[in-house]
Amino acid sequence: MTEKEKMLSGEIYDCADIELITRWHLAKRLQQQYNAMDSRKREELIAILNNLLGSQGSNVWISAPFFVDYGENIHLGSNVEINMNCLFLDCNRIIIGNNSGIGPGVHIYTVTHPINPTERLPENSLFWKSFTAPVAIGNNVWIGGCSIILPGVTIGDNVTIGAGSVVTKSIPENCVAVGNPCRVIRYIK
Question: Of the chain's two ends, which shows fewer C-beta atoms within 10 Å, N or C?
C-alpha cells in the first residue's frame, strides 16, 4: 500500500513520501498563482482550479486567498461559493455539495495526529505522524465565517452552521447548529 493510499484510508502515513510531498509543492504553487490572479480573469482562475482541485461543478467561486494541502482531494458541487481566507487541509476527501456556501475564514481539517506525544513524534522525520478522516458537507449548506470543521464530520443537507462554530461531530440534515462544540439548536421544516 502506498503512503497516499494509507493517507486516504485513514491509516498512519508518512507525510514526507515523495509522491505526497511532490503534490503538496504543486498545490502550493497553484494556490499561489490563484491567490495572485486578478479576480476579473475568470477563465484563468477556473483553469487554475481545474489543476488544483479534484473536481468542481459549474458556477464555483472561491475568493482569494484560499489555502489547501493537496487540493486534489477537494470535490465541489455546482453553485458553490467559498469566501476569502479559507483553509482546507485536504489530506483526505473534502466533499461540498451543490448550492453551498462557505463563509470567510472557515477551516476544514481532515488530518489529525496521535494524542500521545511518544506516538506522534517520529524519529528522523520533519513531520509528525498523521492520520485522516474525510469531511462531507451536503447540498444547500451554509457554513458561517470562522467556523472549524474537524476530521470525520458529515454535515447533512439544508444545514446552517453559525459563525465561529467548532464542528466536532456530524450534524443531521435540515437544522441550524451553532457553538463550541457545535450542536443543533433547531430544526428547519
Answer: C
Report the alpha-carbon distance of residue 36 to residue 177 in Å, rounded: 35
* Mean pLDDT confidence for 59-69: 97
- Per residue in 17-28, pLDDT tens? 999 999 999 999
pLDDT tens digits, 148-184: 999 999 999 999 999 999 999 999 999 999 999 999 9
**pTM of model > 0.90:** yes
Long-range Cβ contacts of 66-75 (<8 Å, 24+ apart): 66/31, 66/34, 66/35, 67/31, 68/27, 68/31, 69/24, 69/27, 69/111, 70/20, 70/23, 70/24, 70/27, 71/27, 71/30, 71/31, 72/23, 72/27, 73/8, 73/110
For residue 85, CA distances in Å to 52, 53, 91, 103 come to: 17, 17, 19, 9
Cross-strand pairs, 155: 137, 171
Cα dist from 79 to 15, 67, 76, 92, 180, whole Å? 33, 20, 9, 23, 28
Q: Active-site residue numbers?
A: 113
What is the predicted pLDDT for the residue at 123? Answer: 77
